[in-house]
């Protein structure tokens, strides 16, 4: 079931089209990655979902109804340009934003202290945003975004400014929120995060949706019939056995005895024959398809769209 549907959204500014007839569907309970180069239109789309700006044409459906101002209280949005008050104490600020979203003062305080403890920042309660680094402030922004436990969470470049340890902490919390039933959308340039977190993605380039789907299905569909063989034996015997069946792209001899070869098989019908020939010529230890990474697919798709 889809929680959110984007239908034929177009947004133009003077002399510039930010989004051009963009449509996509966000499955409920999923983590959805919104990818694209700078200026592709990702942030514009997130702002339209949050009703910060309105589209020229098209509509956003939450459930089966067009999204309204009242629905925004059920959304948590962390924009790339962080929205905290620099001179306000962090604890007061977290409680303030949670109360705007409908929580009582007591409940907001309890939840905020729980999250501060989870992130190991209990001692920051009475500090001000202006005293913090970008990464530290981003932890507080994340807490403010999720404190009211919205059913839809939207993060714009959530990992920028984080070191690897804190980025991993954030990823774990995002997965935990998904497991508790939240639907999560985030835009990112971090392709490794896409593979670790996302169930589905949309790639936007030059204001158009050029690729959408399940991450695993996209990766497998963009495979180029490249395979890797791990084996014990002589590289020359393997190469001779595979002549006429496939193209040997690269070979690598290992001092520990497990050698590697990367091959291209023109058609799927020849895979069995290649495996049989390799197994006859060397001691075959593994044979696996090389699945392209999301980074490979991203670069290929954007370059193709030039």
Properties at a glance:
10 helices, four-stranded antiparallel β-sheet, six-stranded mixed β-sheet, alpha/beta, 306 residues, 14 strands, 2 domains, 30% strand, Rossmann fold, single chain, Alpha-Beta Plaits
Summarize the structure.
By secondary structure, the chain is an alpha/beta fold. It has helices at 42-49, 90-100, 105-118, 134-146, 164-179, 191-197, 215-221, 235-242, 271-281, 294-304; strands at residues 2-13, 16-27, 31-35, 57-62, 65-66, 75-78, 152-156, 183-188, 200-205, 208-214, 226-232, 247-252, 259-264, 283-289.
Secondary structure: helix percent = 25-40%
CATH superfamily of the largest domain, called what? P-loop containing nucleotide triphosphate hydrolases
How much of the sequence lies in strands comes to: 25-35%
How many distinct helices? 10
Main sheet: strands, sense, barrel:
6 strands, mixed
* Low-confidence blocks of residues: none
CATH topology of the largest domain: Rossmann fold
What does this structure look like?
- This protein is α/β, with parallel strands linked by helices.
- The protein has two domains: 2-220, Rossmann fold (3-Layer(aba) Sandwich); 224-290, 2-Layer Sandwich (Alpha-Beta Plaits), CATH 3.30.70.1150.
- The protein is 35% helix and 30% strand.
- The protein has ten helices and 14 strands.
- Strands 6-7-8-3-9-10 form a six-stranded mixed β-sheet, sandwiched between helices. Strands 2-1-4-5 form a four-stranded antiparallel β-sheet, covered by helices on one side.
- Strand 9 (200-205) and strand 10 form a beta hairpin.
- The two termini are 34 Å apart.
- The mean pLDDT is 91.
């Amino acid at each position: 079931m889809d929680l959110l549907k984007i239908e034929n959204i177009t947004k133009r500014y003077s002399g510039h089209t930010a989004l051009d007839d963009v449509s996509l569907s966000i499955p409920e309970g999923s983590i959805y990655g919104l990818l694209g180069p700078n200026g592709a239109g990702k942030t514009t789309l997130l702002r339209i979902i949050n009703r910060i700006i309105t589209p020229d044409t098209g509509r956003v459906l939450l459930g089966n109804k067009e999204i309204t101002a009242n629905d925004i209280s059920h959304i948590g949005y962390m924009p790339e340009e962080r929205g905290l008050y620099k001179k306000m104490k962090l604890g007061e600020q977290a409680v303030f934003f949670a109360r705007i979203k409908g929580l009582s003062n007591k409940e907001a305080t309890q939840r905020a202290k729980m999250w501060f403890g989870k992130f190991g920042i209990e001692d920051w309660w009475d500090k001000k945003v202006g005293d913090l680094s970008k990464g530290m402030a981003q932890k507080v922004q994340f807490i403010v975004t999720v404190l009211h436990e919205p059913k839809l969470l939207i993060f714009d470049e959530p990992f920028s400014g984080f070191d690897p340890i804190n980025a991993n902490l954030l990823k774990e919390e995002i997965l935990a929120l998904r497991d508790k039933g939240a639907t999560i959308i985030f835009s990112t340039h971090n392709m490794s995060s896409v593979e670790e977190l996302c169930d589905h993605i949309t790639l936007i380039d030059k204001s158009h949706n050029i690729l959408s789907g399940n991450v695993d299905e996209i990766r497998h569909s963009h495979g180029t019939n490249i395979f890797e063989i791990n084996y014990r034996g002589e590289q020359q015997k393997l190469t001779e056995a595979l002549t006429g069946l496939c193209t040997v792209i690269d070979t690598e001899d290992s001092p520990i005895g497990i050698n590697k070869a990367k091959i291209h098989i023109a058609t799927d019908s020849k895979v069995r024959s290649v495996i049989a020939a390799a197994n006859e010529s060397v001691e075959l230890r593994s044979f696996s398809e090389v699945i392209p990474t999301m980074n490979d697919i991203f670069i290929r798709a954007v370059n193709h769209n030039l």
